[in-house]
Amino acid sequence: MISDEQFAEITETRARRPEVLAELARGRKRREALDEGRGLFLISADDAARGSLQIGANPVALGNRRKLLNRLVAVLEHDAVDGIVATPDIVDDLLLLGALHDVVVFGSMNRSGLAGSTWEVDDRFTAFDVPSVVDSGLDGGKITLRIDWADPSTNNALSATAEAITGLGRAGQVALVETLPGFRDGGRVRVANDPEALIRALSVAGGLGAVSAYTWLKVPVVREMEQVLAATTLPVLIAGGDPGEEREAVIGRWQRAMGSPQVRGFVGGRTVLFPADGDAIGAVSAVARALGR
């Protein structure tokens, strides 16, 4: 648990010695290899920056930063967890807590597609950019790409994503592209969960950018994942999401997907950090067991 003194020191350092953050980033001990052969298990912690704070019945559960940091520090110490996907504020907080040594860190880049907004598809780059990913010694940048064939904002998102992939690739940095086929339902953007839509979206995402050598894809698990994964040769991290009432069936899909050569790991988010029973370590352990870790 983060002590009162540690939590207070984060703000004190930010206010009085902000230059320390750059020093900590440069001094962070990095892994020699991103993928050490066992498959990556990453924790996603970038939802809050797009105003997506709800967990269960609590609409602002992710709005408690100390509680979030407590969970993140705890799960990053778990042997099965390799790293994190996060925005600059969270990365900096974890640097100040000394929690990012030997940890894979992907910097979340575009967060302006606020949850439920009318411009959600037009998700502009408002967090990490290519220079800051490089200068901060991160392991790559994470990009969210929503593809809605009926929304003209998709074209702006495609162009911006291509530019970011190119910049990261030329810098020798991984671009982790979360590719989501979307559609409007009552004014909200929903993610299509049919294999055909995901295959089309992955095919589009794979062709973006002038450099493909460092492009990875983050892909939600749907039915017929073998067919979906056959759409690409790019490395893939599968996104866990909430198994819901079909828990056994969904976990079975995760396990089968992990057997595909394209799949290099798994990304879990708020359902791992804040499970219904409150036991984040138990949730991490359960996912690890399900994935054969």
Short account of what is shown:
The protein has 293 residues and is α/β, with parallel strands linked by helices.
List keywords for this structure.
single chain; 293 residues; alpha/beta; TIM Barrel; eight-stranded parallel beta barrel; 11 helices; 38% helix; globular
Describe this structure in words.
This protein is α/β, with parallel strands linked by helices. It has one domain: Alpha-Beta Barrel (TIM Barrel). Helix content is 38%, strand content 19%. It has an 8-stranded parallel beta barrel, surrounded by 5 helices. The protein is globular and about 50 Å long.
Overall structural class, as computed from helix and strand content, comes to: alpha/beta
Rg over CA atoms, rounded to whole Å, is: 18 Å
Order of helices and strands: HHEHEHEHEHEEHEHEHEHH
Strand order of the largest sheet: 1-2-3-4-5-7-8-9
Number of strands: 9
Topology record:
Elements: H1 4-16, H2 19-27, E1 40-45, H3 65-76, E2 83-86, H4 88-96, E3 104-108, H5 130-135, E4 140-147, H6 153-170, E5 174-185, E6 188-191, H7 195-206, E7 215-220, H8 225-229, E8 236-239, H9 247-258, E9 263-268, H10 270-273, H11 280-290
Parallel strand pairs: 1-2, 1-9, 2-3, 3-4, 4-5, 5-7, 7-8, 8-9
Antiparallel strand pairs: 5-6
